């Protein structure tokens, strides 16, 4: 089991060659806590309070560990304290605003508070001397906000060239590559920095899991499984590495092995906030492959739908829609379940942040027989193209 590293203060970040432009040790530690906890590409975006996003805007799991740490106040508590510790901390703005953007649940075009948060981040960054690494972080978040994902990845890669242990740049670029469908870049971005992540560096075991996912996405299943299980041997609660192994069993049509793996490891990842829902979704896929549709629906009703209704996070949205759609394609009646999903998806009909998301919103409006929402989605999508 991996030992818990102390949160890093100003000097510790300097020692790691990742200095932060703030004199507040508390802000540095809270930045570390947020990075360790924060949710990645599937965090729901909602309200923005003041300069930093917090509260309803970040209801998802931690970015690296995928688990809200209650002893730290969770992600909401960390961001609130981070804002109070240093309201002009540029990297505090970059991580809080970047997390909302990377969640793809909103955009600066429709969300005035999110737009203001990006502008505030830029204004704050101009009022103080920042390191080149910090300047690139701010520019990358702004570029991502404008919808230029490839350029944002280039900026994060510039950071990683000189600072290969910058976890925020690594995670943001990894997620953006995923959205773009750039599987080889997603793998190679981590491969380049992997040798620098020695065991003494905080979160190093999680880099194994991140790398293993890129290997899996490019069909290197044996290497991916070996690396994911190395990560799990260090930290058995690493839900992302569990997720990679679930993918591997699915891609290799190892249904029996996949089911056994999920069942035996469930107690270790079931409390991993939002990613637990997605891992249950993978579990249900195995059941659909076996034709055990009622068992799959039980997982949906017990784990997937409740998570969607509690959080409204984008990962829960696409999991719910794709699960019901798959079952219907198998000829299974899903009853009135689309009616439970529609209230969540309807409010995103005008987002058009990712076509992947739009396709799932369309599944929901069609499944719920809501022609008005379907028309709104298609008309505004056409206008946005």
TrEMBL record:
Entry annotated with the keyword Transit peptide: no
Signal peptide start and end residues: none
Keywords annotated in UniProt: Acetylation, Phosphoprotein, Repeat, TPR repeat
Domain of life: Eukaryota
CDD domains per the UniProt record, alphabetical: StaR_like
Keyword Acetylation assigned: yes
Gene3D superfamilies: Tetratricopeptide repeat domain
Protein family (similarity comment): Belongs to the TTC38 family.
Protein name per the record: Tetratricopeptide repeat protein 38
